[in-house]
Amino acid sequence: MATKTLTAPVRMPDPRTTPTIDQVGIEERVARIKSRSIKKETKVQGMKLALSMIDLTTLEGADTPNKVQQMCYKAMHLHDSLPGLPTVAAVCVYPSLVKVAKKALGDSGVKVASVSTAFPSGQAPRNVKIADTKFAVNEGADEIDMVISRGRFHSGDHAYVFDEIAAIKEACGDARLKVILETGELGTYDKVRLASDIAIAAGADFIKTSTGKINPAATMEVTLVMLHAIRDHYLRTGQMIAMKPAGGIRKSKEALHYLMMVKEELGPEWLDNHWFRFGASSLANDILMQLQKEADGRYQSADYFSND
Amino acid sequence: MATKKTALTWTLAPAPESADHVKINAQYELFINGKWVKPKSGKYFDTINPANEKKLARIAEAGEADVDAAVKAARRAYDTVWSKMPASECAKYIYRIARLLQEKAREFAVIESMDGGKAIRESRDVDVPLAAAHFFYYAGWADKLHYAFPGKQVSPLGVAGQVIPWNFPLLMAAWKLAPALACGNTVVLKPAETTPLTALKLAELLQEAELPDGIVNIVTGAGATGAAVVNHPDVNKVAFTGSTGVGKLIQRATAGSGKKLTLELGGKAANIIFADAAIDQAVEGIINGIYFNQGHVCCAGSRLFVEEGVYDEVIRKLKHRMRSLVVGDPLDKNTDIGAINSREQLTTINRYLKAGVADGAEMYQPTCDLPNKGYWCRPTLFLNVAQSARIAQEEIFGPVLAVQTFRTVDEVIQKANNTPYGLSAGVWTDKGSKIFNLTSKLRAGVIWANTYNKFDPTSPFGGYKESGYGREGGMHGLGAYLDLN
After folding, report:
1. Structural domains of chain A, ranges and CATH numbers in brackets
2. In the predicted model, what is the mean pLDDT of chain B?
3. What is the mean predicted confidence (pLDDT) over B81-101?
4. How close are the terminal C-alpha atoms of chain B, in Å?
5. What domains does chain B contain, in order, with CATH numbers?
6. Which of A37, B284, B356, B418 has minimal CB crowding within 10 Å?
């Protein structure tokens, strides 16, 4: 698979030439993808894939080391009574809890992602955001989930947003950078597309829809717009960018539709947790419940699945 | 996207719609004067499932004597029942038809897919709901006709003879029956010989709705039956949807007869993509424009005009999108492109594919498996097509797209209009002024902007030039079934 090979010079995209998005067309395409009937072995395979793409997340003011340790155990042992399950892709925590998570996960292969840059609002000076990021990386974060400065973006200062992402990318070192656009605050698909292009050009490894703190969070429509930005970048440069819808994806059926969208719009190469993630906390248990049902032929109560 | 090494293909498992609940008789007679009548001709023909070439039912073939009986029944019902009934009462029957159609939507959708080959996704989400919507819409007009034509005296025409095609069998029946009945006419309807089943199921539904005998008569058969309907001296109105060739014959046959005539004929629509369009959505619109219903659509966007600056991007994305189209079993819920309607039509399409290659165009088809039995055609793209090539000039009526480029607005208008047809067109641009400029200059009856193949009962539909005349749908559609004084 193609990795980070910067072929084109890093340049701010021109907002005047950003592709326009037709809202009606986006909604119709999504409706058509949702009409795909995903059954039998396709469903089981898709659900296991979705599990392996989850960034299990806790981002509360009340998070404690013990809470994070419990979640890390779940990340590695989703439901031990069902054999053959993958681990999730990563756990996602605040910078102050990275070390705890890193230790708890050990050499399981599950990555530690940390939010940074004054998550979720991003309303802090740049030096604070850089320090926030460097702290998380030094604590052992494998991935950094930053937020863009939405206020600056709306006021038309796209260059500020671009420069900031580039600065955070530099602070990340080897950690992979996810750039959260917070699409629920951007207002139009045209702006989502422009923000995606800016983030990709500035060095994002992932583009990500939402913090999970704002409604609406991820939708298939907004994800499709971002997938098209990824596709256009790939067609231009040959470089793959990863995608992470986050927030609001709770049911396995929704997850399967997201995966079908990724497959049809980008291609099967993206069906891998290096290139696609779900930021979600309750999705895992719904998938586990469905997988258990596929195994037993009947649904079990939610009480049979651990809540962490 | 470029093919790369991948661990996972994640192909779709079969998701067939069940056909267990569907009831198809082994044999269908003619529906005349509210009864099932054996044909005086004594002849029958088979209707088959084009996806597996299996026989579905034996269908009566109406001869001239049968058509005469049907017209007489329609005349009697017009004189004694339908023209005497208060319009608000007529409306109740039409509403009842609409409601019953909604109730039986699933059965109609499955039969439509079995008899015609179209994907269940389309018959379920488009054909059947739209057919019901047409009955609902025109039922509302039945007692308000005076308001549609202020200052005019409106009166029904009498007996309407209607001949419909095989591409949207039930929907075309609804397009024809709903306005005819709402305007106070009685009907003799002739469905296409390859797809008679949903019209015959509709006849059963009309019995269940207790529509008085003779108001709708359904006579099955091929061209000769259609000719008998059109030529019958006691028919006051002829409505035909089908090929331009047959349309011309009908126009000649009805000339001087005093029969009111509407024709909805072929098309070779231009779908025009400007560089400032939302390209990814335009690509989806191209797909919907040409591959909807296997391209068996008179208003299909079969000529694609791409502004040169975005040509490479559009074609690359179009090919990518074509690779995710599922071709196969029409009853599978994931099928995008079903079976070609008949062996004859497949032969026609294949002849055009050969002609396209012979004329030097570059053909592209995605690689996908096709079932062993049945009639199939992969979605097809022709690049480097000359304006004078046959595949750019003639209606193929299959999933075949001819692509050309353009540089200026004037050039594309000139090329788009350079066809004997004029049914529909599509324009894709982010600029509103460009849309209005083009829509006023393209000679086509229906023009979609930033979308394609959208139908609604409130919207009139019909052509310019050799695509026919008269409008169906909307308030305009009433005029075709009324005498206005």
Report:
1. 15-295 (3.20.20.70)
2. 96
3. 98
4. 62
5. 27-265+465-484 (3.40.605.10), 270-449 (3.40.309.10)
6. B418
